[in-house]
Amino acid sequence: MMRLDDQTVVTGAGEFHMKSIIIRAFIGLLALSFIANSPTSAAERPNVVLVMTDDQGIGDFGATGNPVFETPRIDAMAGRSSSMTTFYVSPVCSPTRACLMTGRYNYRTRVIDTWLGRSMMEPNEVTIAEALSEAGYATGIFGKWHLGDCYPMRAIDQGFDEALIHRGGGLAQPSEPRENRRRYTDAILFHNGQQVQSEGFCTDVYFDAALDFIDQANDDGKNFFVYIPTNAPHSPYHDVPEDLRQHYMEKADQLAELIVDTPNNLQREIDTLARIAAMITNVDQNMGKLFDRLDAMDLTENTLVIFLVDNGPNTSRYVGNLRGKKNNVHDGGVRSPLWLQWPARLAAGQSHAELAAHIDLMPTILEACGVEAPGGVDFDGRSLMPILTGQSVDWSDRQVVLQTHRGDQPVRYHHFMIRDPRWKLLHASGFGTEDFSGAPKFELYDLLNDPGESKNLVDEQPEVFARLKASYDAWFDDVSSTRPDNYAPPRIQIGTPHEDVTVLTRQDWRDGTWEAEATGFWELSVPSGGEFEVRIEFDERPTPGFVVLRVGNADYRQAIPGRAESAVFEGIDIPAGDTRLQAVLTNDGKQRGIYQAFVSRR
Prior knowledge:
Blueprint: E1 2-3, H1 21-36, E2 47-53, H2 72-80, E3 82-88, H3 93-102, H4 128-134, E4 138-144, E5 162-166, E6 188-191, E7 194-198, H5 202-219, E8 224-229, H6 242-249, H7 252-258, H8 266-296, E9 303-309, H9 331-334, E10 335-341, E11 350-357, H10 361-369, H11 385-388, E12 400-403, E13 416-419, E14 423-427, E15 443-446, H12 462-479, E16 492-493, E17 501-505, E18 521-526, E19 530-537, E20 545-551, E21 554-560, E22 566-574, E23 577-587, E24 590-593, E25 596-601
Parallel strand pairs: 2-8, 2-9, 3-11, 4-5, 4-8, 16-18
Antiparallel strand pairs: 1-7, 3-10, 5-6, 6-7, 9-10, 12-13, 13-14, 14-15, 17-25, 18-23, 19-22, 19-25, 20-21, 20-23, 23-24
Helix pairs in contact: 5-8, 6-8, 7-8
């Protein structure tokens, strides 16, 4: 359950973001026209529930061969589903989420990385929530958004009527309210832009809120699109369901057999895996609650339930016959199950081996719902409905490209893969660096005969190598020229009626690290100038010193007494236009960044 907290609200109530009246009106007219002339009436359209877990790998289910992790309700769903068995996601979270939400490669959406302002999505991208909302669906998100915490990038600005989410990439990150203290249980969350205090383990809270939303939409006679992107089983692992953790610790010997690399401390790795397994089984239990509720409401038959993961597993553990984990571009880091349960339209137990990816979900869902694709939007993805419904489809020309690494813009050949129905070319130069040195060390695999990517054929197959490399180059040039200033990060807008208080966190500051010693800054846009208040919070109570607030070219200095938690700057004049805000604390002869800044119009 969830209750409103009596603490200070740190973000104002959001409004639906009107990014373009002409575009949005055009989307609505197209959708209404399509529905009016479609044999699928509003009453016949499916409801949609899309569930995506965080850092859970393809091998973490009984249905995919895991002998220890208990996922009986998801396994049963897999048996009732039509599935895509060659399905790709990005190696890390924000890129996958941008692709899923837009049907377009994340490099088209300005989502480059997972932090430091590069997980913010271009607000003019049209999301699946916007398209379905315009077509009359009730839209709700419950869990992890990770595409922008401030206006105009929030979920409630991007098509969701209802949003219960955490900020940033997860709980226990610098984007959370300081008073949350890294909690997964009884966590501080944000409901439609308002800070609230939840009760219970976070995954339970998300699913309970989603079920309430389904109840309300059904009572209102509306179709619903429910997106449940859990932050479990993402690290840290300190706060998990204790009964399930103890249950898995009784299987310590079995857990040890799932660990791929020989660890330095086996007992510690077993404990970590028990905690991850506890969060995964908790997700499974909540999937059971979802299915039970749909059954009780007689909605199962015409509800499309989709399940996938956002990237590979967060530790080196069982991934079947694949190779790799999260952050990797080998298949263990970028493969996901895709199970689609829809009894009214999709045959149970059918599997399809055609090459597919996260960019295909938006066009697939729109076709399933009888909603026309938004005008003026060029999808990179394709609808999977013809394949899922057994139609004859020529898929032989399909290629999927994935690339993600740290930094402010993509580097050609850095940590990428390109795959066609048989062959895969990659350069595993490492997610954690902004560039690579020397010539690329390409790898080429015949995945039909070598799914474990064990034999590099780059020297033996020069024609295949040249073809895929040329395709990658064409892709890189294409996505890099989507719009002028293609990789400039979106700017946070302050002082708008959509957000009374804008909370600036290290998630979005422009610097090279989250460490407290860093002194990042935020790139802002001010639609109309005026007088602002800036309240600054420190991540720990500092010794005496001073803090300097810089807005544009103006500096404001304030002495900080010992053990102060915050400082307030009043009467800060900020003109309209683009600007930069930075606050630096100096004490004990050292400079350090602040924890968060709260900006509001006076």
